[in-house]
Amino acid sequence: MRLLMFVLAATAVAACSEKPQTNAEGVKHDAVPWSGTGTAANTGTAFSAPGWKVGDKTAWEQELKSRAQYGQNEYTRN
Fold first, then answer.
1. What is the mean pLDDT of the segment spanning 12-34?
2. Hey, which of 12, 35, 59, 62 would disulfide with 31, CB 3.0 to 4.6 Å?
């Protein structure tokens, strides 16, 4: 009976511990969002918005504003 209690207590204590979650490789930084995904200069992908130029931060911000206003705003949609 004591052995069973000891095993249950050890299991309960072990279940409450947690291994530390550390990143061994360090922090990875992504590229800026307006850098695009194309492989050649000034080329986007088939999923790029028409008129958007790869690497143009101002055009990227304008595209996000227009998408939020016209594409995702339920009040302006018909």
1. 77
2. 35
